[in-house]
Amino acid sequence: xxxxxxxxxxxxxxxxxxxxxxxxxxxxxxxxxxxxxxxxxxxxxxxxxxxxxxxxxxxxxxxxxxxxxxxxxxxxxxxxxxxxxxxxxxxxxxxxxxxxxxxxxxxxxxxxxxxxxxxxxxxxxxxxxxxxxxxxxxxxxxxxxxxxxxxxxxxxxxxxxxxxxxxxxxxxxxxxxxxxxxxxxxxxxxxxxxxxxxxxxxxxxxxxxxxxxxxxxxxxxxxxxxxxxxxxxxxxxxxxxxxxxxxxxxxxxxxxxxxxxxxxxxxxxxxxxxxxxxxxxxxxxxxxxxxxxxxxxxxxxxxxxxxxxxxxxxxxxxxxxxxxxxxxxxxxxxxxxxxxxxxxxxxxxxxxxxxxxxxxxxxxxxxxxxxxxxxxxxxxxxxxxxxxxxxxxxxxxxxxxxxxxxxxxxxxxxxxxxxxxxxxxxxxxxxxxxxxxxxxxxxxxxxxxxxxxxxxxxxxxxxxxx
Length: 466
Description:
Distance between the termini: 90 Å
Strand content: under 5%
Number of helices: 20
Helix content: 55-70%
Strand order of the largest sheet: 1-2
Order of helices and strands: HHHHHHEHHEHHHHHHHHHHHH
Number of strands: 2
């Protein structure tokens, strides 16, 4: 095989399809790569046949164009965000995603306005300062994709490094630094670009699929907007209401109550959004990758086949290996998510009961829906390394209801004043004992303050605000 045989996809002359692709990608380095593969016992032709590489010149030209576009679009980021954006928009538009009619927009905005009025009687937290929105699925993708970047990039970066290490072993030993790859890139950079493209496809597909499932901006317990504002995806609300015994208007109002309640929480508890996202990021960055498991997983995968890598990621082949410390962090995060959704569940239900006859049935339906999750959430679970849904929603809702019965709604909402006041797993296990444990903690803190005052020569009974 001579380097002068620079066949291009679609040309005739008997050059096999796999060789055309390799020469198009590697240029003069193709001969060395082919020789190394054969010496290691690999049959390039068999590998190409197994990967489904077409023999038809037109189909092969399409494959080649896709490879070129892939390499041209991939940058240095661990996730190819342009690819993620484009695929998310395509996925969101699947099955149709027309612009909202004036009537649809008015229905959503009216429901959110009524929800705010009802919530005033259920919580001391005031309405969000954000402008209410009625969205199409595409608009939801555009508004929320920046937060998905925050959630996925840390673990994508770790996996990208591990992926290069695992697949890099398949490159020829002592490969020349001037290997003729497209754009003059090095083999390791090619692998990083392939990994970036794979993650871009995964995030884009998941975000686009999730755009068909969500009702607003807070369904997963995390605020997906930098500046919280209530919004509903009109088509998804209407689709959910179809086939239910409750009227569509009642369903819309109930979902508007949940969205508006969550938005109030994230707006007026300023530390909460940063706390949750920082916990997710810290968890993701602390994940350790089992390199041996990853290398074993990719041995049977064609390194140029992004579809195979994408399928492997979907199946959890590259699932991160969590340490005991990370499992403890995951427990803290799940508790926080449960507390957020439990509060929303309790407050929205309290606001709905005097007005909506099907409140309890709708509440139960939403609880089961959140517990089950969906395919898009599972994809993000594989990518981020955790499931963004609360495992103890019912326990958290019971705890918030107990606090309300014991001390009223004002005391319930005051728990959000500081992260140190948040209940823990012990409180979810025993909601009835929360008040006693909290009182004991307050007494202990007061005792410490008195001891410090005595050490500093201050009056322990003096008013610190005086």
